[in-house]
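A student in our group prepared the protein record below, which I am reviewing. This is what I was given:
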Amino acid sequence: MPARHDAPSAPSRNFSARNGPKTTHAARGEAAARVRIVSVHTGRRESPARSGMAPLHDRPMEPARRARYSPVRCAGPARLSAREHAMPDEAYLALLDALARRLRVDPAGLRQAQTLSIGGRRIDFSVARDADDAAEDQIVVRCGVTRLPAPAREDVCRLLLQANNLWAGTAGASLGLLGERDVIASEAVRLASVDADRLAALVTGLCAQAQAWEAELERRWPAAEAAPPRAGTTPAAVPLHLRA
């Protein structure tokens, strides 16, 4: 009886049509499928020509599988939509309302202006959204420090940068320039972590830092003047009687 040649379970790297038995197309397909499965688990790569299978990109894919493996669905978590970005932040506005009641000012006026004037010093409020997680949205508070008599020189900018870098005399606030002459102090805190009392304390501390830095800048560079409110706005006047 002639010797019977059984097809190998998977083609070896030295297997070819010249030194091994011929196999049918179906057998080659089954063997190639087994090689492809092994490759997924072992990390090996087998070329389509070696495995006997047509390249994946040359074979038609069913509509259901095409939708399932669409790269659009695998792009990652969805960002906030344009409509969500345009919607007012109710948590932020509710916090401004609570702050207005805490300071005994008109809530509607604070909602519209999002600005206070405390002892002649301008306080601006805004919200910084986190595109990935709404729980990380921040409320940003900016306070005018002083208006320099001329565009900020290099030594002024160096002083502000050193204070920010070393957290020296800022109590957690950041100093910066608005334009070329207006020095401002700003502080940001996670919106979900504050209430009206804590926000009022933050505003009080920021005003105190602004006053101290105004005195320091005027001592080093005399003739600085307090920054006036921006044109076109009418901030609500609030007396400086805040308690932490």
Residues 25-68 form one domain. The two ends are 102 Å apart (CA to CA).
